[in-house]
Design a protein that fits this description.
heterodimer; A: 6-stranded mixed sheet; about 5% helix; about 40% strand; globular; B: mainly beta; Immunoglobulin-like; 5-stranded mixed sheet; 4 helices; disordered N terminus
């Protein structure tokens, strides 16, 4: 979905046999029991795990099925991912969100990630990569980049003055991303990596690899304002600007 | 008759807007600046200047205002090529004044643009061009905005922490391969507000603090000079494309008190602060003893978190203002002491003098020398690398006016 229509090998956790670049987003309430059946339809071994959740790590052989039960007592967000051949399989796309909450706020979801096209080709053919040399050239939110990401109604924030808006962000890539909001400060209401950051009111948010972050935005002015990675290399795609991690918020 | 009525209305509107402006700021955008780097090479830059007679620098002028002030920024684009804008980063201005070309407006060559806003909560903010921003920011079109409390006092914000001194450390990087005409002078269609631009790989070679790196930081006296029990406010900001890990000497008792122009709900005691692109942090320090050391700033590749560059900012607590030698011609101060691999000599010359600086061991044997040079009246700061010296005691002597003066006993650690 980059502006240059570039395509590269990609893996994903989907709910059906039809491939989609966006992983299944799981939304449950606190204390719900979540039962997962993970079917490996690939020809290679995969794994399954949930970040910071003990006892659910699984190895799943080609064609095999694994079962996972879990429950979360408090609101938050968690990343499930392929733990096999780490981080390669997870980098190839196998990582998604488990959202735990029951608020009435408007909800939007950003699974942010970057890709080095050549790396995807290498990993998909079993060629070794050296992560120290990683230099991504595509940057996506929910598998899409600017301008296409603005058509994703689950990602593009549209709201009204005074709305309570929650944005669920998971960094399932390898790089750190630094998301800057124009027009508004938002408060951090959950951080899987830095709980001490909860309550901070900011306009720019660093999101580490495998970190999940929940922001609350209560817009106090109308308008259309960008949100983008302020590592400005990440607002390009295939070395072309503007592309990448850049979308807009529309408050009417 | 109808035309006359409209004329009077316009006059009234103009008088109204002029009356509300507390501060008017002129920023001239240019794309033909030159910047000298730490290796003495020169690169082409884009940037902002605040008068027609001055050349742009990197970063641009720091804009200081008081919370609640009504501000007008007059952007005058005097650069042939792509248009420019001012994005007021973190100030949460309305869409019209946000500086994103396709959502507000851009300013073409020889054109003027005006941005109006009310200075928000006291804190540290940024401004930068948002046209083809990946290129124009790296080109140098950025600066710092400091919003003081409504009374302009040395206080972090109204009801916040009072401080005696403040120091801004504004980090960025330069990849010289981007500072070539083939990258900077990207194509632009004057009928479009979105410009499709080709971006090279980013591999910076120079890591900047307030626009300087390496010895330039010392030469430009970017340093924290304070005394014990005095409170200083550090403003840390990052406009680069790398992350920063800022490591503050533990003797400074650093507390992070604000970020992105807002107080933290609870202060955080930490001598290590990560500042990622676009972020700002406010840090209170109050040393309890005299010492000399440095703030270490590491530049982290966002893709692998490897340290690609390191810069140091000197910290002198209680050693500034106490000269080691003083007569009517020359005042000399040597620091830090003890020292590790670098020694600084600050000289104030009152009368043109030839000065030669010697480092001698305890037996009087010359072990290192700064060659004799004539200095005209002014203030100088010399940096002496001492990597080759073994640990021990030495003496600094200065040969001037045909006399050799012993200035100070120094200890290499």
């Amino acid at each position: 979905m980059a502006v240059d229509s570039s395509q590269f090998p990609y893996y994903s956790f989907n709910e059906s046999a039809n491939f989609q670049a966006e992983n299944k987003r799981i939304i449950i309430a606190p204390n719900d029991s979540l039962f997962l059946m993970i079917i490996n339809t690939d020809s290679i071994t995969h794994g399954f795990n949930i970040k910071n959740y003990v006892g659910v790590n699984r190895t799943i052989l080609a064609g095999d099925t694994a079962y996972v039960s879990c429950s979360f007592s408090v609101s938050g967000m968690h990343i499930y991912y392929d733990s096999y051949n780490y981080p390669n399989n997870r980098y190839m796309g196998l990582s998604g969100m488990i959202v735990v909450e029951n608020s009435t706020a408007s909800k939007f979801f950003w699974n942010i990630k970057e890709h080095q096209k050549l790396w995807n080709k290498f990993i998909s053919t079993g060629t070794a990569v050296t992560w120290q040399n990683y230099y991504p050239d595509y940057f996506t939110i929910n598998g899409k980049s600017n301008p296409h990401i603005n058509s994703d109604t689950t990602a593009r924030v549209i709201g009204k003055l005074g709305d309570t808006i929650r944005i669920y962000i998971a960094n399932t890539g390898q790089s750190v991303h630094s998301l800057h909001f124009h027009g508004y400060h938002s408060s951090i209401i959950y951080s899987s990596k830095h709980p001490i950051h909860v309550g901070r009111l900011k306009d720019t948010f660093s999101v580490y690899r495998m970190e999940s972050l929940i922001l609350e935005l209560i817009p106090d002015q109308k308008g259309e304002y960008p949100v983008h990675d302020h590592n400005l290399v990440a607002v390009s795609g295939g070395h072309i600007y503007p592309n990448g991690m850049f979308l807009t918020i529309l408050i009417q | 008759m109808r035309k006359i009525v409209i004329f009077f209305l316009l006059i009234l509107l103009e008088l109204h807007s002029v009356a509300q402006i507390d501060q008017s700021i002129l920023l001239i955008a240019r794309n033909s600046g030159t910047k000298q780097l730490a290796d003495s090479s020169n690169i082409r830059i884009f940037g902002f200047a605040n008068s027609l007679s001055s050349q742009p620098n990197v970063p641009g002028p720091t804009l200081t205002m008081n919370e609640g002030d009504s501000i007008k920024i007059h952007l005058w684009n005097v650069s042939q090529g792509a248009p420019h804008t001012i994005h007021l980063h973190g100030l949460d201005v309305d869409q019209q004044n946000d500086g994103v070309p396709h959502l507000s407006f851009d300013v073409a060559h020889q054109d003027h643009g005006f941005y109006y806003f009310k200075a928000p909560h006291a804190g540290t903010y940024l401004y930068h061009c948002h046209v083809a921003s990946t290129v124009h920011v790296q080109a140098g079109m950025y600066g710092l905005i400091i919003v003081k409390p409504p009374d302009g006092s040395n206080t972090t914000w109204s009801g916040g922490y009072s401080f005696d001194t403040e120091l801004s450390l504004f980090m960025s990087e330069i990849d010289t391969t981007w500072h070539t005409d083939s990258v900077l002078l990207h194509p632009h269609d004057t009928s479009m507000t979105v410009h499709i631009v080709s971006i090279p790989d980013y591999n910076p070679q120079f890591f900047l603090v307030n626009g300087y790196s390496d010895q330039q930081i010392i030469e430009n006296q970017i340093e924290l000079n304070t005394d014990q029990n005095k409170i200083s406010y550090l403003r840390l900001a990052n406009i680069g494309y790398y992350g920063n890990r800022v490591i503050i000497p533990s003797q400074l008792n650093a507390r992070i008190v604000s970020s992105d122009g807002r107080p933290l709900p609870q202060l955080e005691y930490s001598d290590t602060i990560y500042v990622y692109p676009g972020e700002r942090y406010g840090v209170i320090v109050d040393p309890q003893s005299d010492f000399s050391d440095s703030i270490r700033i590491e530049y982290l590749n966002m893709n692998n978190l490897l340290v690609k560059g390191v810069e140091k900012v000197a910290v002198n607590v209680g050693v500034v203002g106490l000269p080691d030698f003083e007569n009517k011609h020359i005042t000399i101060q040597v620091f830090p002491n003890p020292f590790k691999d670098r020694l600084y000599i600050k000289m104030i010359i009152n009368k043109s003098s030839k000065v030669q600086i010697n480092i001698k061991d305890v037996n009087g044997k010359l072990v290192q020398q700064v060659a004799e040079k004539k200095y005209t009246p002014g203030e100088y700061k010399l940096s002496i690398e001492n990597n080759a010296l073994i640990k021990g005691t030495y003496f600094i002597t200065v040969f001037t006016n045909k006399k050799e003066l012993i200035i100070k006993k120094i200890i290499k650690q």
